[in-house]
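URGENT: need a sanity check before tomorrow's submission.

F., can you look over the Purine nucleosidase record below? I want to be sure the sequence and structure line up before it goes out.
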Amino acid sequence: MQLKTTMTSHPPAVILDCDTGIDDSLALVYLAALHHAGEITLKAVTTTAGNVDAHQCALNSRHILNLLNLPEIPVAVGQPHPLIVELTTTPETHGDTGLGYYHAPTAGLELYPDWRELWRHNLTNTTHLIVTGPATNLATWLRGGTWPAHLTLMGGAYLYPGNTTPTAEWNSWVDPHAAKEVFAAAEASAPITVCSLGVTEQMLITPEILDTLIAELGTSRAVEFLPDALRFYFEFHQAQGEGYQAQIHDLLTCMIALGTIEVEHTDVSIDVEAESELLRGTTIADFKNHWGRPTSARLITNANIEQAHLELLRAIQVLAKHNTVR
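Structure tokens as predicted:
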């Protein structure tokens, strides 16, 4: 399926704001493929503190983009900690440095000095801002910056069991105050496309799927990190009783953001519990309009996962045709 574009003959611009762990790395691979194909223009990558600290996330992102032959795309470190609560990272899920058993080199990796400058220069009325980590950078930006014209957020569990506490998804739990601020701002601006845990958990990669993707790339080093990264992720999910496979939340979020797969959604108002320790990060969607508030979210309720796997394979085949580092 080709990328759907509207109102312009130019490929849409994209900024990815992420906390580069294992599933974020696959989102980067996908966006890089679309960039190489001329279907999007990946303008910048900025990082939040979440899976690992924001600086390490930026190093991971810089290294991956270099492997994907995109050294010209700037990567900047975002806010170093959540708005109010202390930072908690998740080495048990993504490894000590965020990419499982793979460790990105740190020497010689150049980072852009100012994430806000990247947003100021690249957030236009055609830019897609895709946030796959905690909403810290986004909330910070919205305290003085313009509302993004196309905004997609991975976060929240709603009526689905959480993956961090019984009711909370990781991104919303790490910085609940940021998520709460963002949804409050959306009520006065425009609804956010929200990819919730119950949808993104359906995007699974198995060892067999990984083998197929690696075979498609042949001798290219473009995704040399994937075997060691995903082996760690497979083991983590198996230890959680999810089977020897991996949930790739952020990759699916990018596909949804860019309209490359079919989805279903419902329009709702969303709030986030930020003060209660027990219910920290719990996301509430007002499905029956009890609050009478303006709509703040286009909540994705279903996605075509079969399409998503075909789209990932297509992206890998695109990368195989381009001059990736060998």
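My own read: The longest strand covers residues 41-47. The longest helix spans residues 305-321. If you see anything odd, call me.
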